[in-house]
Amino acid sequence: MSTDGQSSGNIETASTYTDTSQYEHLTITLQHGVRTITFNRPEKKNALNEKMFAEVATALQEAANDPNTIIAATTGAGNVYTGGNDKSNFHHMPMIEIRDLLTRHMAAFIDFPKPLVAVVNGASVGVGTTLLPLFDAVFATEKAIFLTPFSALGITAEGCSSYTFPLLMGPGKAAELLLFNKKITAREARKLGLVTDVYPDATFQEEVWPRIYDMAKLPLKSLVYSKALSRDIHKDALHQVNIEECKRVTERLTFNMQRGEEHKEFIRTNWPNCQ
Length: 275
Fold this sequence. Notes:
Elements: E1 17-19, E2 26-31, E3 34-39, H1 50-65, E4 71-76, E5 80-82, H2 95-111, E6 116-120, E7 123-125, H3 127-130, E8 137-141, E9 145-147, H4 150-153, H5 161-169, H6 171-178, E10 184-185, H7 186-192, E11 197-199, H8 204-215, H9 220-231, H10 235-253, H11 261-270
Parallel strand pairs: 3-4, 4-6, 5-7, 6-8, 7-9, 8-11
Antiparallel strand pairs: 1-2, 2-3, 9-10
Helix pairs in contact: 1-2, 2-10, 5-6
C-alpha cells in the first residue's frame, strides 16, 4: 500500500466529501483528513455479507493510497457497530474462494500503513471484535458490548485473534472470549486492552470525532513510520496466522453445508496429514 503523500494533515475543504455510490454496503466520508468507512446495513445490524468483506478491503486500499487521508476510521450505521459475519454467507461460494476472500479482508487490516481507528457505536460481534487489536485506537460508547461466539456457532477464531488476544490479555482471558463466548462490556474491554477509551453514550459522537480530527493534524509520515516501527515486527506472524485461521474457519463454516467431496478435498489439500 502506498503512502507517498507528504501532507502534514492540513486538509483543504475541497478534500471533504461523502461517497455513497461506489459501494453497495459502505458509506465513505473524508473530512479533516479522516476517511470514515461506515458499515451500512443497519437493517441487518451491519453484518458483513460476502460483498462487504471485499468492499472493506478495497476501501482500506483506497485510504492507504489517498494522500488526503491521514487516518482511516470504521464505524457502523445506526446504533450497532457490526453484527459480524452474516449467517446467510457462503452457501453458494466455492470453499477456496471463501478462504481467499476472508484472508484478503483480514490482510487489509494487517497491512494498512496509516493510523486506523475504530469508533464502536454499539454492539460489536465476531470479526468486529477480533480485528480490534490491529487498530491503533478504539473508542467505544459505554453501551457497546463485545462478543465472539465462535464455539457456539461451531466455527473458530479469526481476525488474527488467536495470536493477538493471548498477547494482549493473556491466554486465560483470551480463552474466555474466543473459546467460551464470554460477552464483555466496553469498560471490561478497556481493562483487557481491546478498547482505548470509553465515552458516555449521550456525548459519544460529539466527543470522539473532534478528537480524531485533532489526531489527523499530525504529520502523515511521522505517523506512518512510527506505526511501522511498532507493528512491522509482528506482520509476518500475523499473515501466517491469518492464513491458518481462514483455512480452518472456512472448513468449519461449510461443515454443515453438505459440501461432500469438495469439503473432503479441501481438508486433504490444506491438512494432508489429517486422518
